[in-house]
Amino acid sequence: MTNPAERLVDLLDLERIELDIFRGRSPDESLQRVFGGQVAGQALVAAGRTTDGHRPVHSLHAYFLRPGRPGVPIVYQVERVRDGRSFTTRRVVAIQQGRTIFNLTASFHSAEPGIEQQLPMPEVPGPEGLPSLADEVRSHLGTLPEAFARMERRQPFDIRYVERLRWTDEELQGAEPRSAVWMRAVGPLGDDPLVHTCALTYASDMMLLDAVRVPVEPLWGPRGFDMASLDHAMWFHRPFRTDEWFLYEQESPVATGGRGLARGRIYDRAGRLLVSVVQEGLFRPLRPAEGAADSG
Fold first, then answer.
1. Which of 141, 193, 199, 177 is nearest to 252 (CA)?
2. What is the dihedral of CA 238, 242, 247, 248, to 10 degrees?
3. Three state DSSP letters for the chain
4. Integer distance in angstroms from the first to the last C-alpha of the chain?
5. CA dist., res. 5 & res. 73, Å (int)
6. Mean pLDDT across the stretch 143-168?
7. What is the model's pLDDT at position 292?
8. What are the Cα distances from residue 233, in Å, to 87, 236, 264?
9. C-alpha dihedral over 132, 137, 142, 143, to 10 degrees?
10. What percent of the chain has pLDDT over 70?
């Protein structure tokens, strides 16, 4: 299985070991901790598999409590909090080696008729004319570093920044805490709506905190901060496919006290607002010996 999109679908296909207990694998990669979007996506899969499948997810609220260890399985325990006439609520605890590393509450809702309004999508160029992330890095460095090439080969999403990346202190001057990217899975994800929702949950954690960093350091290259997601919330407004292009617009209203807050809005090509996201992350300056190349 070589297609990164297929690997993502496989990663989200949890093993059911009891009625409401699931086990997910964690790829053995050269990471210091398990990627938070993976844990959130797997937890949402576990929650969804304890419902009847007729009510789509409309919101999730999650906390990252401890870093997960790559290569070690994660057990997801689901609590069936409520099965009402219109809403279903599930609580999920992720456990690794006997310790809780993450918890999530998800709510599912039967679609109903109601008012229709939204703020418009920003006017941005489409993804087809924008360089891929690999091309951006290659144009700046003249070549693609092997570490980046390895990451690119396993990356399940095509990522294209709407604005040219900033690489120097001069380019960072006056930059607002905003970022926007077009994204889509690099291959088809099938037709299960829950898979698409969980894949987008995975993607939503990939670069939302970029908006916090834009004014202070290049997004790709040596990193000056140890970053970690603290909490994550999403509201799903409309159906979507994660293997079709979507615009992920991000902004950071504030960063203070070693933490940064970021808000995201996800639109489809037609300009429909699909998902709203909010996340707070930890930002601690790295000591010089700790600096490392960023992976997004």
1. 177
2. 90
3. CCCHHHHHHHHCCCEEEECCEEEECCCCCCCCCCCHHHHHHHHHHHHHCCCCCCCCEEEEEEEECCCCCCCCCEEEEEEEEEECCCEEEEEEEEEECCEEEEEEEEEEECCCCCCCCCCCCCCCCCHHHCCCHHHHHHHHHCCCCHHHHHHHHHCCEEEEECCCCCCCHHHHCCCCCEEEEEEEECCCCCCCHHHHHHHHHHHHCCCCCHHHHCCCCCCCCECCEEEEEEEEEEEECCCCCCCCCEEEEEEEEEEECCEEEEEEEEEECCCCEEEEEEEEEEEEECCHHHCCECCC
4. 24
5. 21
6. 82
7. 45
8. 18, 10, 10
9. -80
10. 94
Distance (Å, whole) CA 74 – CA 40: 12
Instruction: Give the strand pairing for 15-18 and 259-268.
Output: unpaired
What is d(CA 250, CA 279) in angstroms, rounded to the nearest whole number?
Answer: 10
By annotation, the residues acting in catalysis are: 205, 229, 279
Token reading at 4: 């990164």
State which amino acid sits at residue 167. Answer: W
CA distance 63 to 65: 6
| C-beta atoms surrounding 245 within 10 Å | 16
Question: What is d(CA 184, CA 200) in angstroms, rounded to the nearest whole number?
Answer: 9
The residue type of 157 is: F
pLDDT beyond 70 at 290: no
Question: How many other C-beta atoms lie within 10 A of the C-beta of residue 153?
Answer: 9
Measure the CA angle with vertex 28, ends 23 and 34; round to 5°: 70
Look-up: residue for tokens 């999920």?
92
**pTM value surpassing 0.85:** yes
